[in-house]
Amino acid sequence: MTIPDTDEGPLSSEDALRRAALFASGLLALRESPRFNDLVQDLSRTMDVPIAGVSVVDSGFCWLPVLHGVDLDSIPLSESLCAGVVETQIPMTETDLPANPKFADNRFVAGPLALRAYAAVPMCGVQGAKLGSVFIADQRVRPDFASRAIPQLERTTVRILEEASSPHHMRRVGRTTVEGLESLIRRATRNGDDALVTAIDRVMRDVLPLTGMRGN
């Protein structure tokens, strides 16, 4: 999975720090490793749902680097069911989506996919950055989501974040990670934002040993 070039377009300090955390998390390369697909498929089987996945939020989109049960690469954040979870960092369970006016008109609820139940937990990165979510969805009303979904999602999220930040995975994505962080540092330097340069450099120093690479 790739995200837009970090040298283009406006980027606030908050977004730059979140993007730095995203690079450092290892989450951008989940699609390249079968291990993450296995974790999501295990989640699907355990919760008996047709749809399960990982979302990563960036540049106004909800990107889907690992998704089981639906063929999608990304969703505009305005249409995503996970947007509120990522923003508030509060887990969500909806056992009957059409019954909630907030979601009844969503295209994934009212449209052909006809989702009826959804649950998600947030993923948090370094310095509390809001990265995305791990979620499940069903085309059946699921009263059991209220008690079962969050604990299982939280366990899977811990495993995904641990695997994504492990040295063997970070060495595979080292070049993308380092180049992305260096690009963010260059941008912050051009903008004269010394505090942001320092913050991203700190992220770089923390993640470099895992990548096996050297910064410029």
Outline:
With 216 residues, this protein is α+β, with helices and mostly antiparallel strands. The chain is built from eight helices and six strands, in the order ααβββαβαββαααα.
Describe this structure in words.
- The protein is an alpha+beta fold and 216 residues long.
- 45% of the residues lie in helices and 18% in strands.
- The protein has 8 helices and 6 strands, in the order ααβββαβαββαααα.
- It has helices at residues 13-25, 34-47, 83-88, 107-110, 145-164, 167-172, 174-190, 194-211; strands at 51-58, 61-68, 74-76, 92-94, 117-124, 130-138.
- Strands 3-2-1-6-5-4 form a 6-stranded antiparallel β-sheet.
- The longest helix is centred in the last third of the chain and has 20 residues, at 145-164.
- The mean pLDDT is 88.
Q: Can you tag this structure with a few keywords?
A:
single chain, 216 residues, six-stranded antiparallel β-sheet, alpha+beta, globular
Give a quick account of the main beta sheet: strands, pairing sense, barrel closure. 6 strands, antiparallel
Calculate the mean pLDDT score and round it: 88
What is the overall number of helices? 8
Given the C-alpha coordinates, what overall shape results?
Answer: globular
The stretches of 5 or more residues where confidence is low (pLDDT under 50) are: none
Number of strands: 6
- Strand order in space, largest sheet: 3-2-1-6-5-4
How large, in whole angstroms, is the Cα Rg? 18 Å
Coarse structural class: alpha+beta
N-to-C SSE series? HHEEEHEHEEHHHH
* Beta fraction: 15-25%
Measured between the Cα atoms of the first and last residue, the distance is: 24 Å
